[in-house]
Structures are given as C-alpha cells and as structure tokens.
Amino acid sequence: MPGDRVTNLASAMESSADLVARACRGDVEAFEALYRGHVGRVYGLCLRMTGQPEAAEDLTQDTFVNAWKSLPGYEGRSSFSTWLHRIAVNAVLAQRRRPQGRNEISLTDDTGEQMDFAEEPAMDAATPIDLEKAIAALPPGARDIVVLYGIYGYSHEEAASMLGLAVGTCKAQLHRARHLMRAHMKPEAAS
Amino acid sequence: MTTLPFGPRDRELDPLLAKAADLPKDIAPPRDLWPAIAARLTATPQRAGLRALGWPAALAAGFLVASVSALLTWGLMREPDRAADSELAGSVATVPAIMPVNYGPHSALGVNDLATRDQLLVQFRQRLDELSPQTREAVVKNLAIIQRAADEIDAALAQDPASGLLNELLLGAYKQELQLYSKVVTSGGDSTRRT
C-alpha cells in the first residue's frame, strides 16, 4: 500500500540519519552499515570515471576512509550519498593529478599513437554494455560529465561544483561527449 | 556535421543521454572492500570539529597568507639599484592603486579592529610616495593575496559562521595586513626610496 511505502521510506531515511549520527560519533559498526548501503554507487562512480577496476577499488577505499575522517564536518546540507560522491570525485581527481598515478584509460596505443575512434568497431547503442564502452572510451573531461550528469543525474551546476569547473565548461564537455559517443556508435542506433 | 539538441531538456531529447540515465547506478566491487577499509579506520582518527570539506579554498587561502610579505621584505631589504630605480621611476603610474583589504559581511572583526587598521593606514600612506616602484608593486601583490584570502574565508564563514578555525584564519589575514603596513612604516627607507 502507498501508506506503507511512505512509512518504510521515512523509516529508512531516519535509519540512515541515525547511522550517520552514530558514525559521526565514531561508531565503526554504523559506518560499516553506511558502507554496505553506498559502496555500489561509489564504486560505480569511481569505475566509470577511471575505467580501471583496480584503481576504482583503491579509490573506493580512499573515499570511505576520507569520509570517515571528515564525518564530524558533515552537516547534512546535501544528502549523505551526494556528500560521499563529492569525496569520491575529489579522490579520482587527486589520483589523476599524481605524477605517478595509476594509469587512466589511455586514448593512445602501445606506441603512443592516438587511437582513431573511426577504426574501432561500431557498437550497438541498444545494449547498455556498449554504451558503457562508449563512455569509457571518452577523454577524461568529457567522460566525467557524462558520468555525473548523464548517469548519476546531477545538474550541470552540481557536476561543475564537484569537478571544480565552470558550468559552461561542463556543458561544452557534455556537448563534445555526445558528439564523440555518436561518432563511436552506429548512427542509426544512436538516433 | 550533426546538430545535437542542447538545453535543459537534452536528457530527454538525446537518446544516448536517456540511455545513460537508465544505466545501473550501483556496481558491486569484485570483492568486499570493507576489511581493508576497517583496517585503515583504526589508524585514522576522525577530525573532531574540523569542517574542512566545506572550505578548502579558505584553508588554502589562509595558508597562502602566510607567504605574504616575502616579496615586500625582498623589496625593503634589497640593495639599492638606483639605475634600475631611475628607469622605473617613470612607470610608477602603472602600479595599481593601493586599496586596504575589505573583509566582507561575515567577518567578525570589530569596529576597533578596523579603526586600528585605519590609523596605521594613515601612516602607511604618508610613506607611500617614498617607496620604489618595485616595493609598491610588492605591496599591491601582497594586499591582493590577503584580499583573496579574506574573500575565500568570508565565503566559507557565510556557510559556517561559528567555525573557530575560519575566524582564526580571518584574524591571521587581518594581522598580516597590519604587519604589511607596519613593515613599510618602520622600515629604514633608504633602500626603498626612489631617486
């Protein structure tokens, strides 16, 4: 019944707020429950932004450790999930800035030559796995905005804030990403 | 070239973006990451009361303020270079006007603090014409650093007015401004004077 759903939702929200409050006070068990509830989204975000499962695992760990350290400063202005995502995006961006960072998806081949999208086999946009591949093949800046705006539903303003970019830059990156993805997929499937 | 719809409804209008929105948000990691995280938590104390994530720019600006005066010190302490000064004397008009720092609406500085600053500012302005162009430029650069810090800290204070650390950072910026003026007022002067 709708009433039950509302009650369950309210109960879940209360439970989540309670877990956050307990974790803020240093309760590791409460933090583990938060981890269990959010790890899929955090790992998904890290995996899509880096394209590398091992790096995504490390970054997911970093995200939760950083969240633990910063929990006393969490004031609930945004949802816990959004707050966690901000930390994850920061971790990914910090990893990219490291000179000896873990390798990103490379748009160059083994000889250092730029790979040509047109030489890649065209993919069918109807299947999500191919869309994931098309997103993973994007350059990092364009990929970031597709992941945050396209997949996780953040607004341009929110994504720009997370990425430390101007809103206009995010919009331009999204436009570029859409062109690249279209070029990478069968025109008839993408239209 | 293909023209793509662009605007607030691009999620709905672009089939690729629509499909992206339908992708699963959650992806389970291939192994349980909790044991490794838990091991790191025991060695990681929480930052009690520190609200660092809300104002990294303010923190960075606060640290930047600590570097203020290095340029000025160089200007005040350097050996006189009269030839260079003569060449530069004519370009003094290109040095931007020196403006005191504006601390913004969320600053906890009181009227007395600003009055103290203004008194020192009067003495500082009296010495201003005696400064070489390089030193004036250094003063302008230092004030710009302090202003930027004050702006960042003020923006952070708007969100977290009770933060002791932010207020300390603001006080640090204020003290740096006073020290900057004081350094000029109390400097010997020979090496800073224009020929």
Low-pLDDT runs of 5+ residues of chain B are 49-54, 82-93, 189-195
- Which chain pair has the greatest contact? A-B, 53 and 41 residues
Give the biggest beta sheet of chain A.
none
Approximately how much helix is present in the residues of chain B?
Answer: 55-70%
State the end-to-end distance of chain B: 64 Å
How many strand units of chain A? 0
Distinctive features:
heterodimer, A: 191 residues, mainly alpha, 9 helices, 70% helix, B: 195 residues, elongated, disordered C terminus
Write up what this structure looks like:
The complex is a heterodimer of chains A (191) and B (195). Chain A contains 9 helices and no strands. Chain A has helices spanning 2-24, 28-50, 53-70, 80-97, 128-136, 140-151, 156-163, 167-184, 187-190. Chain A is elongated. Residues 99-126 of chain A have low confidence and may be disordered. By secondary structure, chain B is mainly α. In chain B, helix 4 runs parallel beside helix 9. The longest helix of chain B has 27 residues, at 133-159. The radius of gyration of chain B is 26 Å and the shape is elongated. The model of chain B is unreliable at 49-54, 82-93 and 189-195 (pLDDT under 50). Chains A and B meet through helix 2, helix 3, helix 4, helix 5 and helix 6 of A and helix 2 and helix 3 of B.
Outline the fold blueprint.
The complex is a heterodimer of chains A (191) and B (195).
Chain A: H1 2-24, H2 28-50, H3 53-70, H4 80-97, H5 128-136, H6 140-151, H7 156-163, H8 167-184, H9 187-190
Chain B: H1 10-13, H2 15-22, H3 34-42, H4 56-65, H5 70-77, H6 82-89, H7 111-128, H8 133-159, H9 164-186
Helix pairs in contact in B: 4-8, 4-9, 5-8, 7-9, 8-9
